[in-house]
Each structure stands twice: as C-alpha cells, then as structure tokens.
C-alpha cells in the first residue's frame, strides 16, 4: 500500500517562504526546492523510474517558478497537498506516454514485419518463376510445345493435336512426360510450389 509522504513544515515557515518566492526571490525558491525535493522524489519513485522521477520534479518546480505570482497557497496543508497531487498526476502522465510509445513501437514493428514478409514473398515468387521457366526451357522441344500450350495457353488436347499435327494420344504422352521431368527437376520445391498455386 502506498503511503503518501508526511511533510512536516511549520505554517509560518512554509507560507512566508512562498510569499518570498511569489515576489521573485530566487534564493527562497532554491530553499523551497531543496526542502521538498527529497520527499517528493521518494514519492514519485513509487510510480516511475529514477530518471523519470527527476524529470517530473524538474518540470513541477519549473512550473511553480513560472507561475509563482498567480499560485498562492492558503496554508501549508494546501501547498503540501498540491505538490503531492501534482507529482502523482505528472507521474501518471509519464506512464500514459510510455504506454502510448510502446503501442506505437509495437505497431511500427508489426508494419515492418508485414513489409519484410511481403518482400520475402515477392522474392520467393520471383525465384520460383525463374526456376520453373528454366526447367521448362530444358524440356525436349516437342514436350515443351505440348506442355506450354496445355498449361499456359489453355488449349485443349484436341487443339494441341491439330496444331502440332499429332494424335491426341501423343499429346497426352508429351504432357505426362513433361510433368514427370518437371517434378523430378523441381522436387525440392514441390511443397512451396503448391502454396503458390503451381501444381505439378
């Protein structure tokens, strides 16, 4: 359970000190800063890191100095409560900012991953296309003609037979032999070829 610091200062000492600060007394402000710093620093450390705690107190003290003429506490108790509440609020702001930064970094990392895998996918596709084309180019000419017309030109076996002036049975044989050769040539890539929709 968090116990708020008990800051013991006399009413006269505290209020008189602040009245001097409100008139621009830098030494009085330095005394005020040193008097409260240790206790408020310890309190802020319940919430944030040492570095963030120092920054919180620096920002708070800077705000107090800049607003010394308009900020007029009625009592020591009200001044003490204001300082504690301000430290707590500023610590929470730090935590919210850090949470936002973590979420933004996470989002950036996910986007980087997406871009990376998109690049990898494109690279794989390009490599597979090259391998497939090389394997097809190495087929015997008659096999390559029949296979290319069947697989890439969407011609029927009848149309291929008429174009090549061979029987449908011969067309079937050439296509089957082409597939057999390609499967052997690309056997190490068959699973990934299937993923990308090229079935042999």
Automatic annotation (TrEMBL):
User: SUPFAM superfamilies of this UniProt entry?
Assistant: Sigma2 domain of RNA polymerase sigma factors, Sigma3 and sigma4 domains of RNA polymerase sigma factors
Tell me the CDD domains matching this sequence. Sigma70_r4 (cd06171)
Q: Which Gene Ontology MF annotations are present?
A: DNA binding; sigma factor activity
Gene Ontology biological process: DNA-templated transcription initiation
**Which protein, by its recorded name, is this?**
RNA polymerase ECF-type sigma factor
Pfam families recorded for this chain?
Sigma70_r2, Sigma70_r4_2
Which InterPro entries does this UniProt record tie to the protein?
A: RNA_pol_sigma-70-like, RNA_pol_sigma-70_dom, RNA_pol_sigma70_bacteroid, RNA_pol_sigma70_r2, RNA_pol_sigma70_r4_t2, RNA_pol_sigma_r2, RNA_pol_sigma_r3/r4-like, WH-like_DNA-bd_sf
- The answer to whether keyword Transcription regulation applies is yes
Q: What keywords were assigned to this record?
A: Sigma factor, Transcription, Transcription regulation
> Could you say which protein family the record assigns here?
Belongs to the sigma-70 factor family. ECF subfamily.
Q: Which domain of life is it from?
A: Bacteria
Q: Does the keyword Transcription apply?
A: yes
Q: Name the lineage.
A: Bacteria, Pseudomonadati, Bacteroidota, Bacteroidia, Bacteroidales
Domain (RNA polymerase sigma-70 region): give its ranges: 33-100
Q: Which organism is it from?
A: Bacteroides caccae
Q: Where are the transmembrane segments?
A: none
Q: Which residues form the RNA polymerase sigma factor 70 region 4 type domain?
A: 131-181
């Amino acid at each position: 359970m968090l116990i708020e610091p008990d800051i013991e200062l006399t009413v006269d000492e505290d209020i008189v000190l602040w009245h001097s600060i409100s008139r621009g007394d830098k030494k009085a402000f330095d005394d005020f800063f040193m008097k409260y710093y240790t206790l408020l620093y310890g309190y802020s450390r319940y919430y944030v890191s040492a570095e963030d705690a120092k920054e919180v107190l620096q920002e708070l003290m800077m705000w107090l100095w800049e607003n010394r003429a308009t900020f007029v506490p009625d009592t020591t108790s009200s001044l003490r409560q204001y300082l504690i509440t301000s430290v707590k609020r500023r610590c929470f702001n730090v935590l919210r900012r850090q949470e936002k930064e973590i979420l933004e970094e996470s989002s950036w990392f996910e986007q980087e991953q997406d871009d990376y895998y998109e690049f990898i996918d494109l690279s794989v596709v390009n490599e597979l296309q090259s391998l497939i084309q090389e394997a097809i180019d190495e087929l015997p000419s008659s096999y390559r003609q029949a296979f290319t017309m069947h697989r890439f030109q969407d011609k029927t076996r009848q149309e291929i037979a008429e174009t090549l002036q061979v029987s449908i049975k011969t067309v079937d044989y050439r296509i089957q032999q082409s597939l057999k050769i390609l499967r052997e040539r690309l056997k190490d890539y068959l699973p990934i070829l299937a993923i990308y929709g090229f079935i042999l």
